[in-house]
């Protein structure tokens, strides 16, 4: 009986440690990043925009879904892609189809400077 309680205690300790490691880490780093426009429509006309580069936003690890829902992981991936877009001095991201995994979220897109 005592060894069973120690086993349970060990499992609980491991889960607590993993939760601390799985907190969504990507936060918006600036007010400019908050203003990034994220688009998912293929009809967006980028002919008057300047292409700045490819960006990839990601959040989550193999154990993240134990502690966080897909919405928290998606928000972290979105924050990551906005921060990268801001670093490229772009103001708009045209997303490709999201790569949705059960345990993480990855967004891939093209960053553009569209606003004058």
List keywords for this structure.
116 residues; alpha+beta; Translation Initiation Factor IF3; 5-stranded mixed beta sheet; 5 strands; 37% helix; 24% strand; elongated; DUF4156; Outer membrane lipoprotein
CATH topology: Translation Initiation Factor IF3
Number of domains: 1
Give the SSE order as H and E letters: HHEEHEEE
Main sheet characteristics? 5 strands, mixed
> Can you name the CATH architecture?
2-Layer Sandwich
Mean pLDDT: 76
Describe the structure in your own words:
The protein has 116 residues and is an alpha+beta fold. The chain has a single domain (2-113), classed as 2-Layer Sandwich (Translation Initiation Factor IF3), CATH 3.30.110.70. The protein has helices spanning 2-22, 31-34, 70-87; strands spanning 37-39, 50-59, 92-95, 99-100, 105-113. Strands 1, 2, 3, 4 and 5 form a five-stranded mixed β-sheet that branches. A hairpin with a 4-residue loop joins strand 4 (99-100) and strand 5. The longest helix is centred in the first third of the chain and has 21 residues, at 2-22. The chain starts with a helix and ends with a strand. The mean pLDDT is 76.
């Amino acid at each position: 009986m005592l060894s069973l309680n120690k086993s349970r205690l060990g499992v609980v300790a491991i889960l607590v440690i993993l939760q601390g490691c799985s907190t969504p880490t990507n936060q918006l780093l600036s007010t400019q990043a908050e203003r990034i426009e994220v688009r998912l429509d293929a009809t967006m006309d980028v002919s008057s925009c300047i292409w700045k580069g490819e960006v990839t936003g990601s959040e989550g690890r193999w154990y993240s879904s134990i502690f966080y829902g897909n919405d928290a992981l998606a928000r972290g991936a979105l924050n990551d892609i906005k921060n990268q877009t801001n670093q490229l001095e772009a103001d708009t991201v045209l997303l490709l189809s999201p790569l949705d995994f059960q345990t993480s979220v990855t967004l891939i897109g093209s960053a553009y400077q569209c606003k004058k």
